[in-house]
# Entry
Amino acid sequence: MNQKGGVLGRSLEFVIYDDGSDEKTAVRLYEKLVAEDKVDAVMGPYSSPITDAVADVTEKHRKLMIAPMAATTSIWEKGRRYLVMLPSPVEALSEGVLDLAARNGLRALAVINADALVGKAAAKGASELAKRKGLELVFSETYPKGTVDFSGILNQVKAAKPDVLVAASVLLEDLVAITRQMRELDLNVKLFSSLPYGVLPDYYKRLGKSAEFVYSGSFWEAGLPYPGNQEFVTAYEKEFNRAPALQSANAYAGCQLFVEAARRAGSPDSDKLREALLKLRTRTVLGDFAIDERGFQIGHKAVTIQWQDGKQVVVWPDELASGKPRFPTPPWSGR
# Structure
């Protein structure tokens, strides 16, 4: 943007602090950004819990915040005015895998999730979506933070004999351990979805062939045909010598939206930015963007990927699919 003259005749400048993934630190730093650094705008931090915490600061100061990495619906049910959601809600991340399950005649669903904001939201969403799609919830359990041995809960899943298993946690360690221990216990299901970070390259790196056939919901994929997406991927790879993960794409899309809103508003004033964003219907590298009066995302839709031969293949929705689902998942003994 600065090479093209910046925004509103001014160069963009980032003030960046590291919150160490700590909510109290993040609250202090956002207070500093607004009250001391006098920034024109703020971008949201990483994760739903930290976004929820710092949103109290930005509301107090009436400072608009686009949240690129928060997708838990409850954050937008607190009457906030200056918080804008970018990705689709985490409650909808299992929609693709459950739709594929229903289409293929599967009926029984099991859900396990971490005792944390995103894990519980994803599990709640899966349970509600399952009802709509005619699947029966035969097992649902929340496991405590710090769980390392999942054999107890996985043996309960095995006894329930589900066709589909959804595991939900933002901790990659959890999802890797659950997948590994499924193999050790010979727990076989027709579809297994690891939400949300079964989508990360490190998931496959850690698990190797044990990650094959696993599904995940994703806010973004490198091959999706959205405006500027290929240019973003190419530029990112050139800059950092690696492919972007979805966190990078989400953050980039958040900046795209801020720039467009500032252009339309003709000002970085938060109320004017909010009005511009409420009217805006556009596409970023993430896909469709539209929000309701709460700032809640109603335009963007997550896709579903499946790991196939070490690659993330988009298998849902049909109009964006780059390949067909490999169904059913073969038993561990046959791999």
The longest strand covers residues 136-143. The chain has a mean pLDDT of 96. The two ends are 49 Å apart (CA to CA).
